[in-house]
Amino acid sequence: MPVRVLFLGQLADLAGTGEISVPAPLDWDGLLRSVPAAVAERLPAETVKLACAGQVLADKISLCAMDGDEVALLPPVSGG
Protein backbone atom coordinates (compact mmCIF):
# COMPACT_ATOMS: atom_id res chain seq x y z
CA MET A 1 0.00 0.00 0.00
CA PRO A 2 1.51 3.35 -0.98
CA VAL A 3 2.04 6.49 1.05
CA ARG A 4 -0.28 9.40 0.19
CA VAL A 5 1.54 12.72 0.00
CA LEU A 6 -0.84 15.68 0.33
CA PHE A 7 0.09 19.14 -0.91
CA LEU A 8 -1.78 21.93 0.87
CA GLY A 9 -2.20 25.61 0.05
CA GLN A 10 0.48 27.17 -2.10
CA LEU A 11 2.38 23.87 -2.20
CA ALA A 12 -0.53 22.32 -4.11
CA ASP A 13 -0.29 25.19 -6.58
CA LEU A 14 3.43 24.56 -7.03
CA ALA A 15 2.91 20.80 -7.38
CA GLY A 16 0.04 21.19 -9.81
CA THR A 17 -1.91 18.58 -7.85
CA GLY A 18 -3.36 18.00 -4.40
CA GLU A 19 -1.74 14.63 -3.82
CA ILE A 20 0.51 11.90 -5.12
CA SER A 21 1.08 8.28 -4.12
CA VAL A 22 4.59 6.97 -3.58
CA PRO A 23 5.90 3.55 -2.57
CA ALA A 24 6.46 2.85 1.12
CA PRO A 25 8.57 3.18 3.13
CA LEU A 26 9.19 6.87 2.55
CA ASP A 27 11.98 8.83 4.23
CA TRP A 28 13.04 12.48 3.90
CA ASP A 29 15.38 11.89 0.95
CA GLY A 30 12.72 9.81 -0.82
CA LEU A 31 10.17 12.57 -0.27
CA LEU A 32 12.48 15.18 -1.80
CA ARG A 33 13.00 12.92 -4.83
CA SER A 34 9.26 12.19 -5.20
CA VAL A 35 7.81 15.70 -5.19
CA PRO A 36 8.15 18.26 -8.00
CA ALA A 37 11.37 20.29 -7.88
CA ALA A 38 9.52 23.53 -7.07
CA VAL A 39 8.09 21.89 -3.94
CA ALA A 40 11.33 20.13 -2.95
CA GLU A 41 13.11 23.51 -2.92
CA ARG A 42 10.65 24.83 -0.32
CA LEU A 43 10.45 21.82 2.00
CA PRO A 44 13.65 22.49 3.99
CA ALA A 45 12.36 25.93 5.08
CA GLU A 46 11.45 26.17 8.76
CA THR A 47 8.09 27.69 7.87
CA VAL A 48 7.01 24.56 5.97
CA LYS A 49 5.74 21.85 8.32
CA LEU A 50 5.43 18.14 7.70
CA ALA A 51 2.86 15.81 9.24
CA CYS A 52 2.94 12.03 9.07
CA ALA A 53 -0.01 9.89 10.13
CA GLY A 54 -1.67 12.93 11.70
CA GLN A 55 1.32 14.08 13.77
CA VAL A 56 3.35 17.17 12.94
CA LEU A 57 7.04 16.22 12.97
CA ALA A 58 9.40 18.33 15.06
CA ASP A 59 12.27 17.14 12.84
CA LYS A 60 11.27 16.73 9.18
CA ILE A 61 14.30 14.67 8.28
CA SER A 62 13.13 11.99 10.74
CA LEU A 63 10.25 11.16 8.36
CA CYS A 64 9.55 7.43 8.18
CA ALA A 65 6.17 6.87 6.49
CA MET A 66 4.97 3.30 6.18
CA ASP A 67 2.29 1.49 4.15
CA GLY A 68 -0.95 3.43 4.15
CA ASP A 69 0.42 6.50 5.95
CA GLU A 70 -0.53 9.99 4.89
CA VAL A 71 2.15 12.68 4.70
CA ALA A 72 0.87 16.26 4.60
CA LEU A 73 3.05 19.12 3.45
CA LEU A 74 1.88 22.22 5.33
CA PRO A 75 2.82 25.60 3.85
CA PRO A 76 3.45 28.73 5.91
CA VAL A 77 0.25 30.18 7.30
CA SER A 78 -0.45 33.80 6.59
CA GLY A 79 -2.67 35.83 8.81
CA GLY A 80 -3.81 39.28 9.38
TrEMBL record:
The lineage of its organism: Bacteria, Pseudomonadati, Pseudomonadota, Alphaproteobacteria, Sphingomonadales. This is MoaD/ThiS family protein. SUPFAM superfamilies: MoaD/ThiS. It comes from Allopontixanthobacter sediminis. InterPro entries: Beta-grasp_dom_sf, Mopterin_synth/thiamin_S_b, ThiS/MoaD-like.
